[in-house]
Design brief:
The complex is a heterodimer. Chain A is mainly β. Helix content of chain A is 0%, strand content 48%. The N and C termini of chain A lie far apart (33 Å). The chains are: A mainly beta, B mainly beta.
């Protein structure tokens, strides 16, 4: 399809484990964003990439969270030593270019459950 | 800290009724977007407004950006069950990285047939 895809759709893990969440943006989109959405809340910004570099990682809650985009396309969000409070839907979005009035197109999300 | 307050938080109406949802802030935004999200899916962009006082119409949906670019409203005419969903407003920061969209908590709309 032509939209943003995310894998896995659901991830259940145990407290203390490491997880990786993947995002495939829309082809040709240079900007990629990660958000976290808790139940009953709007999405909360985590990190934004322009090309391969993280342009703004001010939303990452702590150093257990890390994201990469080595070739400027696919991105992986990595969470170390998961905690129950990390349970949420992790959304990825992409936009055509920087300064594009932030018209971001979202994927379906990965629902992470930490037991 | 920039915040977007959405009201009402929940809205349940009958098919055919009109409704308005609001998105308010004390901060100025460079742009304001409205998204609709269904359970198990990501938000889907409905509209972007960028100019103070701008009004955009999308079939039965009318979006307005406040003159001071601090607030916005979404009006739906003759609501249909297919309009059911979570409506989110999101603002782009003036002078920010332009990557950081700030979302409200959303208005959960239920339209009953």
């Amino acid at each position: 399809g032509a939209g943003v895809s995310q894998t896995p759709s659901n991830k259940v893990t145990e407290k203390g484990k490491y997880v990786e969440l993947r995002c495939d943006p829309i082809s040709g989109h240079t900007a990629l964003y990660w958000y976290r959405q808790s139940l009953g809340q709007g999405p909360e910004f985590l990190i934004y990439f322009q090309g391969t570099g993280a342009a703004d990682d001010s939303g990452l809650p702590n150093d257990r969270f890390f994201a990469v985009r080595p070739e400027g396309s696919v991105s992986t969000l990595k969470i170390q030593r998961t905690e129950r409070g990390d349970s949420a839907v992790y959304l990825c979005a992409s936009s055509r270019q920087f300064g594009d009035y932030n018209e971001q197109f979202f994927g379906p999300g990965t629902r992470l459950t930490v037991l | 800290t920039q915040l977007l307050e959405q009201s009402p938080q929940f809205l349940s109406i009958q098919e055919g009724e009109n409704l308005t949802v609001y998105c308010n802030s004390s901060s100025v935004f460079s742009s304001l977007q409205w998204y609709r999200q269904e359970p198990g899916e990501g938000p889907v962009l409905l509209v972007t407004v960028v100019t103070g006082g701008e009004v955009k119409k999308l079939k039965r949906l009318t979006f307005q950006f406040g003159d001071a670019r601090k607030d916005s409203s979404l009006h739906i005419t003759a609501a249909q069950p297919g309009d059911t969903g979570l409506y989110l407003c999101a603002g782009g920061s003036v002078g920010g990285s332009q990557g950081n969209l700030i979302f409200g908590k959303g208005t959960k709309l239920s339209v009953k047939p």
